[in-house]
Design a protein that fits this description.
It is built from 5 helices and 4 strands. It is α+β, with helices and mostly antiparallel strands. It is flat.
Length: 161
């Protein structure tokens, strides 16, 4: 199939009418959708006008209290049965623990050694950057307070997200 002048003019008209490449290919016959797209590109035809976005904002979805399925043991005759009962659960988040590390405990990278907390404090590109420096105990990277931040139980992470 070749692109003669008549087919090219018809392609331009159909394109300006807003037909899709698939519709144009079917209309012209003997040509694929990709061939139409390629020819449109080579001809440098302008993209079609986009529909105007809605001027009225969509209403926001209200968040509700999540319902959880909680197992409840009941008895039926001589059988104990565990049923999953839906109940509303209020999500309670603990406030983040505020740690006050005295400036005297903060250490530079040159002072880091085994048994000291390696929790970074501040911006590494800043002159005031330091590490926590509190006692972490042998075999641990962070002090107890920073361990609670770094190693949260998996269930707590799911709840807070």
């Amino acid at each position: 199939m070749s692109w003669d002048d008549g087919r090219i003019e018809r392609l331009k008209k159909l394109w300006s009418d807003g037909l899709s490449a698939s519709q144009i290919a079917a209309e012209l016959g003997g040509v694929t959708r990709n061939a139409v797209i390629g020819k449109v590109h080579r001809l440098g035809l302008s993209g079609r006008a986009k529909s105007k976005p809605a001027t009225v904002a969509r209403p926001r979805v209200k968040t509700t209290v999540k319902q959880a399925r909680i197992p409840v043991a009941t008895t039926r005759g001589n059988l104990a049965v565990i049923e999953m009962v839906e109940t509303e659960v209020e999500v309670i988040r603990k406030p983040a623990e505020v740690l006050m590390i005295p400036l005297s405990r903060r250490i530079s990278i040159m002072e880091l050694r085994e048994g000291l907390c390696k929790w970074p404090m501040g911006d590494p590109l800043d002159g005031g950057f330091a590490y926590c420096g509190a006692d972490s105990g042998m075999g641990k990277v962070y002090c107890d307070a920073h361990c609670r931040i770094a190693y949260q139980p998996q269930n707590d992470r799911r709840r807070s997200g």
